[in-house]
Each structure stands twice: as C-alpha cells, then as structure tokens.
C-alpha cells in the first residue's frame, strides 16, 4: 500500500507540472501561483540535494525531475508574469519582487530543515505549502475572473497527488497534524475543481483580460 500511494502521488504531481507547462505556454501566462511555485522549487531542489548526499535514490531522482519541470514553469512566470501587473510595476521592480519571493521560499525550506530535521521537515513543509497552494489557486481564479491559464487536469491531479500522501502519512503512519492539513487541502482542492467544472459548460461567459504588449528592451 505504501508503494502504491507513493507512486500515485508521484505520477499525479508529474501530471500537474507537465500540464502547467503546457497550459502556461498555450495561454501565454503562468499556470501556478508564484508563491506556491517558489516554495515547490525550493522544496524539490533542497531535498534533491539532501537525498543525493546519502547516495542516489528514487526519490532524489524524482525531485530532480520535478525541479527541472519547475524551472520551465518559472520561465513562463518570468516571460509572461509582468504583463498581468499594472504598468507601474517596472522591470526592475518585477525582478526585485521575484528574487525576494524565491529567496524567501528557500529560506523557509532551510528553516524547516534546520528546526525539524529531514524526516519531519519534508512532510510539514510539503503539506503546509500544499495548503497554501490550494488557496492560491482559488485566488488566481478570482484574480483572472475565470479559468484562463488554469486546467481541470491540474486541479484533479493536484488533489490526487496530495490525497495519496495524506492517507499514507496521516492515516497509515498515524500523524494527526498531517491528516488535518491533508483534509483541509482536499476541501480547497475540491472547491477549486467545482469552480472549473462550473465553467466548462460556459467558458465564453468569462471576460478575457487583455495583456499589455510590453515594449522591446532598449539596447
């Protein structure tokens, strides 16, 4: 059962990343909230290194694959993200904000690791940022006034990818804290899925925000 749940989670999250890349490039936007994206990238790269310090492991390889996928999603954020912000957000401000967000994400992961140790830090940080991501996807939907740059595949795969380790760590390993966080993630994930399902029959009802065409950089 442990192996089955681990495989389900790994496949589901891989689907999330591949679909986020596809949707981001298709809609010329980023398909994952930037704070969640930064925390994911920091988690995967941090624990990929941590896994390989003890030798090559399957989880370490998976973390590397996920981190590489995140780099492509980060590209979509850097390429298209500023166009969705007010004109007062200049290139230097956008760059400074992005650096701050990603640097903070790494700092948070390292603080978890230093305080809780590898075993607990991987679980606590993963489920807390998962809960944050679940809420941020709904916020992204509201900010864009509809499903642009989002996907039902991402929503369902994220739910399943979180539900499997919730059962594994929260139920089988009897960790009430993780179980509670996992249940809260499911509540938000199912609400997000319901929003996307509601729009599948009437996608034209949502206004598509026009993106600003940014001037070419001066040479």
Task: Please give a structural write-up.
The chain has 219 residues and is mainly alpha-helical. The protein has one domain. It has 6 helices and no strands. Helix 1 packs parallel to helix 3. About 3% of the residues have low confidence.
Fraction in beta strands: under 5%
Q: Biggest sheet: strands, sense, closure?
A: none
**Sequence stretches where pLDDT stays below 50 over 5 or more residues:** 205-211
Helix content: over 70%
**Average pLDDT:** 89
List keywords for this structure.
mainly alpha
Short description:
By secondary structure, the chain is mainly α.
Helices and strands in order, then pairings?
Layout: H1 2-27, H2 34-53, H3 58-80, H4 91-143, H5 152-172, H6 176-200
């Amino acid at each position: 059962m442990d192996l089955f749940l681990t495989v389900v989670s790994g496949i589901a999250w891989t689907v999330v990343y591949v679909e986020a890349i596809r949707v981001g490039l298709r809609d010329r936007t980023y398909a994952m909230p930037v704070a969640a994206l930064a925390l994911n990238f920091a988690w995967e790269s941090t624990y990929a290194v941590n896994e390989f310090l003890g030798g090559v492991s399957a989880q370490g390889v998976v973390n590397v694959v996920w981190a590489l996928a995140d780099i492509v999603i980060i590209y979509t954020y850097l390429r298209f993200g500023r166009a969705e912000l007010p004109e007062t957000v200049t290139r230097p401000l956008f760059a400074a904000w992005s650096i701050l967000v990603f640097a903070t994400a790494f700092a948070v992961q390292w603080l978890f690791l230093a305080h809780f140790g590898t075993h607990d830090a991987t679980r606590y940080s993963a489920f807390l940022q998962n809960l944050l991501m679940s809420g941020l996807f709904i916020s992204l939907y509201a900010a864009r006034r509809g499903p642009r740059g989002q996907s039902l595949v991402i929503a369902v795969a994220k739910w399943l990818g979180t539900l499997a380790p919730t059962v594994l760590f929260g139920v089988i390993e009897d960790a009430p804290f993780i179980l509670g966080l996992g249940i809260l993630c499911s509540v938000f994930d199912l609400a997000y899925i319901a929003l996307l399902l509601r729009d599948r029959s009437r996608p034209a009802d949502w206004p598509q925000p026009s993106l600003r065409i940014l001037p070419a950089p001066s040479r």
